[in-house]
Amino acid sequence: MNKILLGFFFLFLSFCTPASQKIQNENGTLIYPVFENCDKNLSNEEKWKCMSEKLNILYHYQLTHEYGAAISNQEDSIILRMKIDTIGAISIDQIKHSDSVFSTKTDSVLYEITKKVPLFSPAVKAEKKIDFYFKMPIILTK
């Protein structure tokens, strides 16, 4: 049986977060979104680590157990540009595939998995909820 190797290469804040959001400015410090079962009182780095681990587990489980047969013949390197909006809902903003590889089936599966992710506590800056963007790499192998 073909295996799906799911690699999340979170390089934490330096790779996944726009630089403009990592610094304090006159409008206040960014407070990162909080994923279900992650402590709201953690530092941004710890929140990011918790969120990364939870998303890794969720996507890995879904890709290997729920959708494994649907994408078992796919081999791809994918970068998902994700958005957590002001109500805490996560969505895929953009999908980039490696070179010439493209599969609408894989894209459909990724969108379906993303619909199952629970709500986050949204990111906050200057006491205002904001949209939060990050990148999530995924590698699928046969």
Record keyword descriptors for this entry:
142 residues; alpha+beta; 3-stranded antiparallel β-sheet; 4 helices; 6 strands; 24% strand; elongated
Describe this structure in words.
The protein is α+β, with helices and mostly antiparallel strands. The protein has one domain (12-20, 37-140). It has four helices and six strands; from the N terminus they run αβααββαβββ. The strands form two sheets. It has a three-stranded antiparallel β-sheet with strand order 1-4-5, with no helix packed on it. β4 (123-125) and β5 form a beta hairpin. α2 (44-66) crosses α4 (104-115). It is elongated, with a radius of gyration of 16 Å. The chain starts with 11 loop residues before the first helix and ends with a strand. The model is unreliable at 1-27 (pLDDT under 50).
Task: Summarize the SSE layout with pairings.
Elements: H1 12-16, E1 30-31, H2 44-66, H3 68-71, E2 76-84, E3 90-97, H4 104-115, E4 123-125, E5 128-130, E6 132-140
Antiparallel strand pairs: 1-4, 2-3, 2-6, 4-5
Tell me the strand order in the biggest sheet: 1-4-5
Strand content: 15-25%
- Rg for CA atoms: 16 Å
Question: What order do the SSEs take from the amino end to the carboxyl end, as H and E?
Answer: HEHHEEHEEE
Number of strands: 6
Count of separate structural domains: 1
Categorize the overall geometry. Answer: elongated
Low-confidence stretches: 1-27
> What structural class is derived from the secondary structure elements?
alpha+beta
